[in-house]
Design a protein that fits this description.
It is a single chain. It is built from 9 helices and 18 strands. The chain has 322 residues and is of the alpha+beta class. It folds into 3 domains: 92 residues, 2-Layer Sandwich (Pseudouridine synthase), CATH 3.30.2350.10; 133 residues, Pseudouridine synthase (2-Layer Sandwich); 59 residues, PUA domain (Archaeosine Trna-guanine Transglycosylase, Chain: A, domain 4), CATH 2.30.130.10. The strands form 4 sheets. Strands 1, 2, 3, 4, 7, 10, 11, 12 and 13 form a 9-stranded mixed β-sheet that branches.
Length: 322
């Protein structure tokens, strides 16, 4: 048997993103590794981890697209949440051990809507013990598994929108649009506390991340089915990296400026009244995504993240596939 046979199928450079509708029962990294094998991709990463029990949008990044992972960490998220009222667990979700029960008050739909509305805007959350945050160099969930509870500082997060979907018995379903760093399990517990009871998150489905659309998600079974025709077939389903930055302003620069920009030099931005900040930078014809730049007060665009120009990069601008 050859050395190559021992290593398995050869991996290649694959650039692009896949919005996986993660199934319940596997970690975010396990989901990433499955799709990475299907694509036979050399380099991969994901952003915005979901708990094993959670489902929904998990952006998977391959090759050059891994460079947008850091920007997606700052993105807002939208979740569909099912809360089980009257029962608390140590983890705050259905996988945990029951730690207490309480009567559920007979509140009207209007009363629940008022409670939810009270969480709009900037709120303070104390991170749960079962989280990946560190305390004195150790993950909180590691301490929690040993039965230890430590003090955690409250963190400020923002709830952009929250709406009641269904109220039936002990089941409360709502949709929440929130900022990065929001712990939905904690939100559920805090909502129940205001209502005079306890609760845990029975199920959690992430509908969107940043500017990505829910209809662009692909489930794992579909990815496996497409890949049966070969990894090239699945690669055609990838989105270009700049799709992740769709909400950002953009600039097109001429060929000479493009050479200097991709070489790490600041280039003239021109004057159109745009405010300073991060922008998407494209070639003069708009067909090639060159990278992330910072529009500065001195009228220049400073390169912040350069994207390699390859044959399999999207042609024709944002959202089109090779």
């Amino acid at each position: 048997m050859t050395a190559r046979a021992n290593k398995g199928p050869e991996k290649v450079v694959v650039d692009g993103m896949l919005l996986l509708n993660k199934p319940a029962g596997i970690t975010s990294n396990q989901a990433l590794q499955k799709v990475k094998r299907l694509l036979r991709a050399k380099k991969a990463g994901h952003t915005g981890s979901l708990d094993p029990a959670a489902t929904g949008m998990l952006p998977l990044c391959f090759g050059e697209a891994t460079k947008v992972c850091a920007y997606l960490l700052d993105a807002d998220k939208i979740y569909r949440v099912t809360a089980r009222l009257g029962t608390a667990t140590d983890t705050g979700d259905a996988d945990g051990k029951e730690t207490g029960t309480a009567d559920v008050p007979a509140l009207s739909r209007q009363a629940w809507e008022k409670i939810l509305a009270g969480f709009l805007g900037d709120i303070e959350q104390v991170p749960p013990m079962y989280s990946a945050l560190k305390k004195d160099g150790k993950r909180l969930y590691e301490l929690a598994r040993k039965g230890e509870i430590v003090d955690r500082d409250a963190r400020s997060v923002r709830i952009h929108d929250i709406s009641l979907i269904e109220l039936r018995g002990r089941r409360l379903i709502f949709r929440v649009h929130c900022s990065k760093g929001t712990y939905v399990r904690t939100l559920v517990e805090d909502i129940a506390k205001v209502a005079g009871t306890v609760a845990h998150t029975a199920s959690l489905h992430r509908e969107s991340v940043g500017d990505f659309r829910a209809e662009d998600m692909m489930d794992l079974a579909s990815a496996e089915h497409v890949a049966e025709s070969g990894p090239e077939a699945l690669r055609k389903s990838l989105l270009p990296a700049d799709t992740a930055l769709a909400g950002w302003p953009q600039r097109q620069i001429d060929e000479d400026a493009a050479v200097r920009f991709t070489g790490g030099q600041a280039v003239p931005a021109g004057k159109d009244g745009s405010s300073c900040g991060r922008i998407r930078v494209y070639s003069g014809d708009g067909k090639q995504f060159l990278g992330v730049g910072e529009l500065r007060a001195d009228g220049t665009i400073a390169p912040r993240r350069i994207f390699r120009v390859t044959e399999n990069q999207a042609v024709g601008g944002l959202g089109e596939k090779p």
